[in-house]
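Researcher: We plan to redesign the surface later, but first we want a full-length starting point. C-alpha cells attached.
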C-alpha cells in the first residue's frame, strides 16, 4: 500500500465525503437552487430594434433562461427602444425589458401609467451615444448639424430622447433647425451610405454590430459630443443626471477611430420588471443574468460588463423582491 496515499479508514472517510458533499451542494445552490423546481409558464421580454444590442442580448438571454428553466417560454417582442420598453412593462404588455435610466426617470416624472409598479432586476451595461456622419463630411461638431438631415431615432426610443437633448444643449431646435428623420440602427447606416441623411444618432452598447459593415469599410466617422455639452445637459433638469461624460474607446471601431478616443456621453441600462411579477421567477431570472455573463459576453461584448457588485444599483428603480432575495443570498 502506498505511503503517500494511505487508505482512509471508514470513520475518517465519512466526514471527508460529507464535507465534499456540502461544498458541492453550496456550489449547486448558488448556480441553481438545489431541489427546487424551476419556474414555468410564459413571459414576454421587450427588446429593441433589429441590429441593436437590446435585441441580441434578449435572444442570448432567452437561450440561457431555457437551460435553467426548460418549462419557461420567453416571447421576444421588438420595440423602438427604451421609452417604449418602459411603457410596455409598466402597463403589463411585457414582463421584463431593458431600458436606459434616463428613459425610466422620464416615465416616472411624467407619472406614466403604472410607473409606481416598476422595479429593477439588475444594472447591466452602459449605452454610449454615437453621432455618425459620412467619411469626409464637413460636420465636425453638434453645432454643425443645423439645417442638416439628421436621423434622431425612432419615436419612443432612447435614441430620440438623447438626440433631442444633445441638439438642444447645442442651441439647436430638433424640430425646426434640422430636418429630423425617424431612422434607427436598422435603417440609419444604409440611409447614410445612400446620402439620404447627413448624420444619425445612435445610443447603444459597444460595439454595436449594426454599425460594423460601415465601420469595416471606413465609410463613416464620429462627431464628438464634448464636455461643454455634457455640462449643459446636466443643467437641463433631473432626468439628465444619468448622463456621464466619457469616451468611446479606440478599440470599439478600430477601422474608423484609427487609435483615437471619441468624447461622448453614456447612460446605464437597467433590466427591469414589475412588482406583480412572481418574485420566485424574478429571483431565477436574476441568477441566470449574473451566471450567464461570460457566455452571453462572448457574443455581446457589452454583456461582459455585467457585474454582481454593481448589478444591485438600479437607480431610479428599487429592486424587485425576487432580485433582492438573490443578491442577499450571494452576499459575502
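Model: Full-length starting sequence:
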Amino acid at each position: 500500500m502506498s505511503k503517500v496515499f494511505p487508505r482512509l479508514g471508514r470513520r475518517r472517510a465519512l466526514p471527508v465525503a460529507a464535507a465534499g458533499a456540502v461544498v458541492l451542494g453550496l456550489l449547486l445552490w448558488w448556480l441553481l437552487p438545489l431541489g427546487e423546481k424551476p419556474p414555468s409558464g410564459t413571459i414576454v421580454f421587450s427588446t429593441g430594434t433589429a441590429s441593436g444590442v437590446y435585441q441580441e442580448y434578449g435572444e442570448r438571454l432567452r437561450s440561457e433562461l431555457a437551460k435553467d428553466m426548460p418549462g419557461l417560454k420567453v416571447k421576444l417582442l421588438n420595440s423602438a427602444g427604451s421609452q417604449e420598453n418602459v411603457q410596455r412593462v409598466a402597463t403589463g404588455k411585457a414582463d421584463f425589458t431593458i431600458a436606459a435610466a434616463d428613459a425610466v426617470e422620464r416615465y416616472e416624472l411624467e407619472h406614466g401609467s403604472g410607473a409606481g409598479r416598476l422595479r429593477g432586476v439588475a444594472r447591466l451595461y452602459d449605452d454610449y451615444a454615437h453621432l455618425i456622419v459620412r467619411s469626409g463630411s464637413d460636420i465636425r461638431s453638434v453645432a454643425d448639424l443645423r439645417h442638416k438631415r439628421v436621423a434622431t431615432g425612432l419615436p419612443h426610443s432612447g435614441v430620440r430622447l438623447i438626440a433631442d437633448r444633445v441638439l438642444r444643449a447645442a442651441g439647436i431646435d430638433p424640430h425646426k433647425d434640422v430636418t429630423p428623420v425617424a431612422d434607427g440602427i436598422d435603417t440609419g447606416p444604409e440611409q447614410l451610405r445612400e446620402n439620404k441623411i447627413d448624420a444619425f444618432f445612435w445610443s447603444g452598447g459597444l460595439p454595436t454590430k449594426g454599425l460594423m459593415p460601415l465601420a469595416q469599410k471606413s465609410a463613416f466617422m464620429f462627431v464628438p459630443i464634448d464636455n461643454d455639452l455634457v455640462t449643459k445637459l446636466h443643467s437641463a433638469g433631473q432626468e439628465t443626471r444619468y448622463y456621464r461624460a466619457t469616451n468611446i474607446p479606440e478599440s470599439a471601431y478600430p477601422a474608423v477611430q484609427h487609435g483615437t478616443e471619441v468624447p461622448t456621453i453614456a447612460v446605464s441600462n437597467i433590466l427591469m420588471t414589475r412588482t406583480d411579477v412572481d418574485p420566485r421567477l424574478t429571483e431565477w431570472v436574476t441568477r441566470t443574468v449574473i451566471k450567464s455573463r461570460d457566455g452571453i459576453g462572448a457574443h455581446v461584448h457589452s454583456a461582459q460588463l455585467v457585474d454582481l457588485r454593481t448589478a444591485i444599483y438600479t437607480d431610479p428603480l428599487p429592486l424587485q423582491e425576487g432580485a433582492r432575495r438573490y443578491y442577499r443570498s450571494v452576499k459575502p
